[in-house]
Amino acid sequence: YRVPEVWLFRNKSLKIYQLQQDNYQLRSLSLYFPEIDLSGIIARVFQQAADQGTGVALRELRRMLSM
User: Do the Cβ atoms of 6 and 17 come closer than 8 Å?
Assistant: First the structure.
């Protein structure tokens, strides 16, 4: 498959890979959400889930994505 973008969660961080010719390259931003720091948001939400619970983390995620 030639998927344009793949997200992997590894070592407690989100990795974004984009297909460039025939290889996947690690990128800091998504093609589909270039204005959103997905890696930063995911790291914060996972830490918040560990510290304060999943419900709190999901509410915060919704708040961040609605801005």
Answer: yes
